[in-house]
Write the structure tokens for this entry.
Amino acid sequence: VAIILLRLAPPPPHAGRGLATPRAPPSPAACPGGRGRRSRSRMMATPAHVVVHGAQAAARLRRSARPAAATCPRRACACAARASSHAEGDDAAAPDAKAFSLAGMLRRAVVSTGVAAALLAGSHGATPEATAAEFDVLSQLTPPSSYLLDDSKILKISSGSVSSRLRKLEEDTGYGIYVVTVDRLTIVPDVYDFASRILERWYPTEELGNKKAVVVIVRFGQKADLASGPAFEEAVGFDVLDSMFGSDFPALAEDGEFNKFTDGAIRRLDLVLRGQADPGPIVTSQKLAKGQAINPLAILAPLVGVPLVGFFAVRAINDALPAAPADEEEQAPPPPPPPPGVAFPSPPPPPAASGSVVMTIANVVAGTFSVSISSEGVDVAAYQFDVKTTIGDQEVILSGATSAFDGITAQAGPSNTVVGFSLSGVTIPPQATSTLLVTVTVDSAANNVDGLALCAIGAIFSDPTPAIISTTSPPCINEPPSPPPPPPLAVVLNIALSDVDASGSFSATYTSNVDFAGYEMKIGSGVQDVVLASATSAPDLLFISVSTSGDNNNLIGFSLSGTPIPKTETPTPLFTAVVQDVATFANADLCVQDVVVSSLGAQSLPVSVTPCPVVTPVPSPPPPPPTPATPPVDMPVTLSMSALTAAATFVVSITSSVAVAGYQFDIKVVSTLDPLVLDSATTPFTGFTLSASGSSNTLVAFSLSGDVVPPQSSPTTLVDVTAVSTNAPGAGTALCMENVVISDASASAVGATFDVCGLQPPPPPAPPLPPSIVSFSLSSVDASGVFSIFYTSNVGFAGYEMKVGSAGEPVVLASATTAQDLSFMQVQVSGTSNSIVAFSFSGNPIPPANAVSPLVQVVVGDVANLANTDSLCLTDVVVPSFGGTATDLGANFPPCPPLVPQSPSPPPPAAPSPPPPPPQAVVVNVLATAVDGFGFFTISFTMTTAGNTQPPPLSGFQATMKDPSSGAAVALETATTNIPNFTASGSDSGVVLLFSLSSAPITYNLGDPAIELATVQVSDTATYSNTVLCMDDLQATGTGGGQLPSTASPTCVPPPPSPPPPPPPTGSVEFQIGNGGSINGNTLQIQYKSSVPFAGYQFDVVSADGQDQPVNFASGQSSLNSGVDVTAGPANTIIGFSLTGATVPPSASFTSLLTATLVNNSPFQNSAVCLKNVIASDSAANALSVVFTECVASVALGLEVFGTPGQTQTLTLVAATGAAIIEWQLTLKQIDPVTGTASPLEIDSVASPNPDFAVSFDSLQGKLIGFSLSGASYPAGDSVELAIITLVDNAPPLDQLCLAETIISQADTGTQTGVSVPVEDNFLCPGELSSPSPPPLSPQPPGEEPEDSGSSSAGLIAGIVVGIIGLLLLLALLIFCLRKRSQKKSAGGSNVSKNMSVKHVEMLPEHGPDGNDPMNVRVSGAGDAAV
């Protein structure tokens, strides 16, 4: 409350500068020292050196002269505010003191501020974007090198010119200015306070920040302010600062001219700081004449967020301040509303509390009415509602309220608002029945409402967290209708592409009058698709991720952070991309098709682009409705789901006959088909990564380590899913699935049955289909020799075969590529003929298409003669049907005239056919060669007959290629043949197939060399190089379709039993960060040491300050020539992998593994970082043991003296840490100022300021131990008190105190870690290490003995003699001590000796009947015996 009200009094002269604390110039006698604990010397105090401009702003508002050149450090100003508050009682003697009276304002505004504290978080939640922006700025440890941190993206001025101007100013004069922009302020709502925190974080001492300044501009709310060091403020002068932030900024911000203000302010400050004349205001007086008078309510209400708070706070301030003359009243211009039709991102709804509240309002009786509530499952901490008449919608003016609950304060009037809150933390427990909440008095002078029924609007009840409670209140009738929405803004959005340059690159620019969330488009050139190799976002849009697949022309831009692409009136870079085929598209004009631009509300926006031409197909009759697809038969996986529980959870179970390597599905509600948004998911199967985003209904599961879900004979839990509670419809709700994709270990799709959404009873049998209609059309050949074939069809079909001609001649084809949507089709051209053949190994048909759709893109062989030809035609077209017996469906197409054969020859003369020979035994001998170094091998054949007669022709061949050792099928990449009119194919299942859709056979003449059937390439060259694969399931087909006897060389034989798998690797990999654990500039180096080779690794990089902030990278590069690639960025994960089976070699010592470069403007330059989530695996994907340094937050220790050193016995031990502490141990010593040696301080007593912790001590040795028997931990923080220590003698000066033998145990690791003490808090004793750890072991090399240390028999004898003498001395000392103790007991003393070794002290307070409070103390010694 005090902090908020210090910001409130008096208000600043303009809305733009927020609310700065009013402070008077410090006085040497204003802050006398020595006020008990509050005035203690703090060795860890935050540096205080920032000049406060709020005092000068207050002085301007009161029209009083500003004190000359006064600087006001934070301590002096706080002291001046206290002194001012003490003088409030003497208003008559000191009228000016009233303006600074804190106590007076507390009396007037504490009520409204208490309401704000109770309700603000519940009713006005901070937007995540604003919070993240504030944390991003405050997390920067060093100022930006560019002098500009434009987090809100509102400045369009050249960052280069700003950087050069400000850098030159600092180099010439030493004055540094930094400009920071943010969208909103929620964590630190005051602009000046936020600027001060930034300046203190970047320049933590007065010497460093004396000539520095930070300017903060807040986009929404239009506020700005400047915080600076004393020298900077004195050099610039109050008048210049007041002119800029009191006049220029409000006038310019009203029109959104942030760029003009920033540029003008920098130029003006540059001239003044160089000693030149002030050029004067940035804007003219006519602009300012719109009015600058301050309406405190317009400033306070948006700041606090609750209108009632603004009302009471402004009334308190207006009472405290003298009234300004009427002609000098200033009115701040209200912030401009957002453009109509443009919605800024809405903040998320406030958190909802569990439970509910039902409120009722009684009719007015004798000028009062009562409000009652019943509540269930929740405590009520605060409430607020407005009262109106039930009929007529009239506000009821109130004059007071009385709470029915002790500890709850109720306020009402002079408006129609009732509020209730507690300044002591009291809450209203759940009320099972309707219970009186508050009695309210109606203002009789303003109302005559006795007997009228009342209602409540805007009712808000909050719990202690605070979270909003679901509330039911009496409804009001005749609510005023909502105003009609403003007309939508006409969106003007344009995207333009440059030409492709000689290197294959092109760029895109955009203009837009609205912000937008992302985009998707396809890039083309003429009628060709332009396949993209890569794409990157523009430098100012690095938060936008741009994705291309590398094998098509799709390009997508989206944001994972939710930050929109800002609107701009001038063409602004959007992205840069590189084409795949540079030779074809260099210097080409580009076009865009299928463009989609998404708004912030996920709506499609209209956009202007250069469209790609549409190819006009050959007209064809309209097709009938498509035939419904036949569902798959093989369904080896069954998924089932439970109903939704009350906790918004459900279970997905699986029954399967195959191993499942990955799955994906969407979840919906059966009754409404609404998506069920998923929050999180877990699975009992290890090695799987689950993705449930919290913003969609899609669940994705996959494994990077090759793990699978084994076959399950009965329903088994596959995944436990939790839905977003606010989206869940309720317990017992039935769910269903859509878009289910299941894959096996070979990444092949697996059929599945599941609860289908919207599944209806089977429809009645469809009427017979009309005759099939398939039509083909062709485009012209472009300049690069490319043309496309399109199709329409009313049925699906299995493939096609056709020949292409032009002007009566065949068109030899070089290559062909199937359409993107038909990627399952295999398309073959021979390269020497005009035939095209397409078929599918997966069994999928080419689907029906009502509209003209792409079928295949073809490249001609003779580009020079056929370029720009538009007379292509087809002949010999065959379209096989799908399903059942294959039949030719026929087709419509542009026919060719009779083709002229390329090599005409006269037909041979007819000869009488000889009589057929008697049947002879025929054998087809098939041979395979060894796989070469590129993965290729050939298959050829010969034929033999029993009677050496001519063998019959061969019309087809099929075989399965297998591993000769294991008998497993070998995956094949491609297969080609040189036999005319034949097509060869190879599949992942090892099947080689040779076939022809024509009737031409393969003829073999006895005695001829072997005929090559096919050239085949295996997928795994490294494994099968120089291996002769065996053949199984061999089939050779004759011209009649019958099978011919055949032999294979080699033939597969059953493999011997496989040996047991080798045990998993036992080696380990150790990782460490180079440069002493820190980033060197922008570059991170990772080193490794390993006893075994490893094939892959992955880890995350986070900050080493205990906050685990992600350290993001732009790129990564391997330091080795091992073949293991490195990928880093755009996040903080670094991955090493190999697509060729390469491994990282072992290394006996630490060797550089990789380097990674930070993203631009990263705050982690030269920062200490550490690794998390480290994994490493061998080439078989087995996990290896990894060793790395855990992330541990450093701890800084400090001492504080209560009172004046040398005159007090009390010290406080404090710690600053980024992580929780669970145990600590140290020794308190005093340094001799003459000798420099440290000796233990005698301790009289120790108290623990934390009730969950005990502190034990050794009074003579100065040793202290802090621990908790309940498992509690000290919280992280900048000043955590560990112990309050009372010494036997007075405390020496702080520079003679030191700490030794420090051991800190942190909660995040549970292991003891050394203390890291910053230089300014260095309390370690001389000779102490800042990170104590056991001395490293130094093992001897194998085969070597430790060196002789010079020991001899004489040395051994001398050592024995010295040992005996020492034992005798110890025995004598023991006897002396026992005698002394015996004498003390005989004297009747019962007190504990001060020099006793104490292990534990337990204090047991009691309360006596006479008001005295004795304290029982139980002391445990070394043997755990109570003393």
